[in-house]
Amino acid sequence: MKIAYFIYSIYAFFVFQQQVDGIPQLADDILEPEPLPFTFETLGWKILGVLLLIIAVVLFYKWFKNFRKNKYRREAIKKIQLIETENSNNQSKLTMSISF
23-49 burial by CB neighbour count: b if 16+ within 10 A, else e? Predict the structure, then answer.
């Protein structure tokens, strides 16, 4: 069935192609408009740029505010790490003194 359909489609293509070639052209060529230049000089791009800039500034402000608000946490983590290193040094000193 598929082979018959394929052969018929080839036959139809050549038969209809010959009929189309014999018809005189009734219309002129299609007139295409000039291509539009793609530039960022229109008002919409300027509005979009300003909106994106405002969004970026607001997001940076929120991040910076949160960063400053968590300063005490960063300092606490540094102190805890310092205490842990001191304790590990003291621990090693104690084990050395006990082993003698």
Answer: eeeeeeeeeeeeeeeeeeeeeeeeeee
- pTM of the entire predicted model: 0.48
What is the residue extent of each domain of the chain? 43-100
**Cβ neighbours of 70 (radius 10 Å):** 11
- CA 43, CA 49: separation in Å to the nearest integer? 10
pLDDT per residue over 17-59, tens digit each? Answer: 544 445 555 556 677 888 888 888 889 999 999 999 999 999 9
Angle (nearest 5°) at CA 44 between 63 and 39: 105
Tokens standing for residue 84? 């842990």
